Amino acid sequence: MDTVAHDILLIGGGGAGLRAAIAVAEANPQLKVAVVSKVYPMRSHTVSAEGGAAAVVKPEDSLEAHAYDTISGGDWLVDQDAVEAFVREAPEELLRLERWGCPWSRQPDGRIAVRPFGGMKIQRTWFAADKTGFHMLHALFQTTLKYPPIVRHDEWFVTRLLVDEGRCTGAVAVELATGKIFAILAKAVILCTGGGGKVFPFTTNANIKTGDGMALAYRAGVPLKDMEFIQYHPTGLPFTGILITEATRAEGGWLLNKDGYRYLQDYDLGEPQPEPVLRSMELGPRDRLSQAFVKEVAKGRTIETEYGHVVHLDIRHLGEKIISTKLPFVRELCLKYQKLDPVEEMIPVRPVIHYMMGGVHTDIRGETPLPGLYAAGEVACVSINGANRLGSNSLTELLVFGARAGAAAAEYAASQADPPASTLNQALDEEQRLQNRFLEKTGGVERISTLRTEMQEAMEDGAGIYRDEAGLSAAAEKIQELQARFQDVALDDHSLTFNTELIACLELANMLDVAESLIHSALARKESRGAHQRTDYPERDDDGYLSHSQAYWTENGSPRIEYLPVTITQWPPGERVYG
Amino acid sequence: MPETITLEVQRYRPEDEAEPVFERFDVPFRADWMVLDALNYIKDNLDGTLSYRWACRMGVCGSCGMMVNGQPLLTCATYLERLLPGPIRVEPLKGFPVIRDLVGDITDFLEKLSRVKPWIVREEEKPLAEGEYLQTPEQLADYEQYSMCINCMLCYAACPIYELEPDFIGPAAIAIAQRYNLDSRDEGVQERLDVLSQHDGIWACTFVGECSVVCPKNVDPAGAIQRYKVAATADWFKSVLTPWANR
């Protein structure tokens, strides 16, 4: 078995991972940093983010206002100390991206431009046309190239975290090109692997979003927090699930039912006005808009298509000039993937799985309960998003908390000795497991794609926009059945060279663990809050559940669920009022 | 509309084959399917060993470029419908060593990208507390087009020079260098020119222009190279005519 050693190991090379790598390199240039990613970093899913990144910039705005929007948007399941740090550090993080070349859209005088966004009371969303994530990721990636201490292992897939003497001491990874298995020793490890939208069948998420980091941490005994909170974005293209950014509505787009009626006015989201109104109607929060869609379906006021029910997103009245300058990617996506021009036609859309509010439990420095293990970005749950994330907070989150995790890990690593020699024994065990269970295994009857499809369907049926005990229990049983059947998985491919079937198989194992934690967390939360709506418990219950769920891996296939109190500093729980 | 369509997919499994071979697969034809959807159908239902890269399926991650009927294309953005009646020939991108099946080795590009210093170069940086560098929409428009490169490598696959002279730094890397040169916040023009005016830099390009034709994001690397040549020539004249101007 080959071994490599670094001071700090970053798993995942998207926005959070690259920001963390730069933070380490700037904090302590003596530290050797390695970014391990299963894809080339610029392929990471940050690339697909469209609308923008939030940070207070206008004189009439305030950090308190950004914090309040975020906390109320998250239905108070939010750690307010984390949000305070987040809104405070957000502007300088976005400015830092400006220094690193991000082509932020500008006002005529050359200053940063901002746009409105859902659930935000004041305009504070910085944007690079409607390709904000793409530009941020490439600016970050290209900037990392100037730091010699940052090395990369591109197209390596991490299969296990190494934990020795009570701290995280590295990971085991497969190099795709050669099939070689490496022990990567490190004094600190930062997980930045993103979310796991692919546990559901219909998602904006890239194929690579398989919850890998969540599963790695979960199996290492680290709790997954608030996993029941999954965001449906209200506007995805039917069939492909391609995201049509909220910026379409921020620029003035309307959501119309089959009668051409702006139906959101029937769901406590305000009165329709010709111009967009902040925190109102189409600029309400994503959870409420997706729930309104389901109710429209029930009333028979949506349009049936071969890819399910849809409503219309109408931006025709914005005119070609605005569409082409502010929303060029939306137009390109509609033309290429939906065969329509939004200048001329309405866009069919339906809610689509977009983001996981939950993830690996961390404190506000990005540290998990396992010493030496850090997490940032969508994989983590530092609890700024609570029960529902506001659009344009996640790009900022990966910068603020990527930087924080990098700085904290750098400080920790500088004080640590090299991992003990015994760490390598675990790595050898993992190598053995990979060979016995997959590479050299013959027989097996279960196809990866079949298990994956059944998992995705079970999740949509049981853990969709509205949930209840019966549906969730059925999904829990199904996931347990799939976990058992996975033991008998069949691999056609035993090659050591770029074996993508092996990776798909390991990803499936990760997704099954993520699905298991999600379902059981949802079953345990007997209330409705934000994106977690239980038809059998329709009210929010602050006495019982103003607390974070924590799912711990157990041997018996269903996690142990515990609760942690929410941190409240200055905003007592209140009603979420929109419109 | 036909019920099925045939794909002829290049296979190369270095442990089993000395040379690439083609394998035929019949897949269902659907009007909404891209070439990538057909490959996914094969992998999920017919042969789990087929290897290729993909991620976003929305034309922005740059992973899924392949030769489709001889043309470099993003397979996630190429409808099967466009290629009727078939068969559709799918090969790895030309110009890159093949690792396996449809997977090419692009480490050469990553090395070249680093060489052009694709980051903002400044002698001094304004403190963050002083806010943003002003950049008007017009100044942004100067480089915006070149900032759209998704590193999909279609331009390298289309470039006849890169095929013959693998040391050529190539269209995307030059376009990205130009993206920074034209950015009003950047001061690194000269450093990049030192790299790009070497023999494997811009002068290797004979201006075939195929790179700009195949670019799925209209980045126009050929235009970037042309502008660069003009700038480099002016720079050369300046150094000959005014050698005292201590550059």
Average residue pLDDT of chain B? 94
Radius of gyration of chain B: 21 Å
Largest interface: A-B, 61 and 61 residues
User: Numbering strands along the chain, what is their spatial order in the largest sheet of chain A?
Assistant: 7-3-2-11-19
The main β sheet of chain B shows up as:
5 strands, mixed
Q: What does it look like?
A:
- The complex is a heterodimer of chains A (579) and B (247).
- By secondary structure, chain A is α/β, with parallel strands linked by helices.
- Chain A is built from 15 helices and 24 strands.
- In chain A, the strands form six sheets. In chain A, strands 7-3-2-11-19 form a five-stranded parallel sheet, covered by helices on one side. In chain A, strands 20-18-12-23-24 form a five-stranded mixed sheet.
- The termini of chain A are far apart.
- Chain B has 247 residues and is of the alpha+beta class.
- Chain B is built from nine helices and seven strands, in the order ββαβββββαααααααα.
- Chain B has helices spanning 35-46, 107-115, 137-144, 154-158, 160-164, 171-181, 189-196, 210-214, 221-241; strands at 4-11, 21-28, 65-68, 71-74, 88-91, 98-100, 103-104.
- In chain B, a hairpin with a 2-residue loop joins strand 3 (65-68) and strand 4 (71-74).
- The longest helix of chain B is centred in the last third of the chain and has 21 residues, at 221-241.
- The mean pLDDT of chain B is 94.
- Chains A and B meet through helix 3, helix 4, helix 9 and helix 14 of A and helix 1, helix 2 and helix 3 of B.
What is the gist of this entry?
The complex is a heterodimer of chains A (about 575) and B (about 250). With about 575 residues, chain A is of the alpha/beta class.
